[in-house]
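User: Watch each token:
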Amino acid sequence: MKQINEILKKHQLKPHRYLNNGKVTIVDTEMGRFVIKKNNKDKKIFDYLKSRSFNYYPKSLNEDEEYEIIEYIEDIDYPNEQKMLDLINLISLLHNKTTHYKEIDFDDYKQIYEDIKNNIDYLNSYYNDLITLIGTHVYMSPSEYLLARNITRIFNALNFCNQEIDNWYELVKEKTKQRVVVLHNNLDLSHFFKNENSYLISWDKAKIGIPIFDIYILYKRHGLEYNFEDILKHYEQSYPLQKDERKLLFILIALPPKLEFDKNIYQMTKEISQTYDLLYKTENLISPYYTEQRI
């Protein structure tokens, strides 16, 4: 707190109330309300955003100090479904404004391919062993029964991913340039604010990368809550994905998680049920993009 007071004093801000909110401190001063947080953002990323006239983030009074003083954004209350569409519109704008192409380092693609293939092999082995173990139980718990009864959905998803990652690898072998953008890399509906303007906060993980990773993170966090068929179409109206990008996105969102029986029966049953619900939603999202076979 002493360090924060010294920073405020340096910028001639007189605090009269503090509110701790997780990793940030909200401070009321005579000049208005500000957020104080440890400065972990990449300055080069923000210099690049400024050069591309993308300024949809809270303004900072002191970008170069250890603790940053940021303007406080008052969020208006409106339906989350509309907020999600506004968020995806802003992400498509971010990607449009920061798109550039770089020479392909094929080792990057090879690493993605090998990581996903290894993950698929591991999950196949893990779930085969798990189902074998559950089959030895005289009485299954509700969570074990739920997993076992629907296990083909997990194996079908793994088979789809295994086939598609090979198809993706063949596609990228023909590329000479890679399309990259500034990724927010921490997308969550709680990181989007809107009043007369739109704002994204929590840029600490921002980096340059393939555009689909922002959509992937958003889907993993909110896939069960919102209609991503509309959200993805909304995004692609402004920023169409390339064939290999879309294929990689579908592989990533279709990969099932590793379900570990490390919680009580109620929590495990809920987690397994949500996993199957998301796998089902993912099938419905992906299926229309495949004309010759259903997933």
About this structure: The chain is about 50% helix and 15% strand. The first strand starts at residue 15 and ends at 21.
